[in-house]
Amino acid sequence: MCAAPKQGQTIPAGVDVEKETVLTGQVVDAAGTPVPGAFVRLLDQSGEFTAEVVASATGDFRFFAAPGTWTLRALSSQGNGTATVAPEGPGIHGQDVTVAQ
């Protein structure tokens, strides 16, 4: 097994991470197993719905957002979970979401 750190999703060519704020992560269960097909919602600081994506077959998700405080809410048949991420500027900001019944 390779000891390299997890690399996450590939960012599309043409995305300048020096200017864009990218929120990325993986939906996992309590054992750390990826949860594919989870609905991942992005909520702003006041809790208002902003966007939603479906996690990939490996549980990965990605949003393009502005700096600030965001809530990530994952909904799946394996349970739900919430995490907060607060990027202060451009770049790739990783935050996994763990779901539980």
UniProtKB/TrEMBL annotation:
Stored Gene3D superfamilies: Carboxypeptidase-like, regulatory domain
Keyword Ubl conjugation recorded: yes
Chain intervals for the UniProt region annotation (Disordered): 80-101
Source taxon at top rank: Bacteria
Keyword tags: Isopeptide bond, Ubl conjugation
Name of the protein in question: DUF1416 domain-containing protein
Natural source organism: Gordonia hirsuta DSM 44140 = NBRC 16056
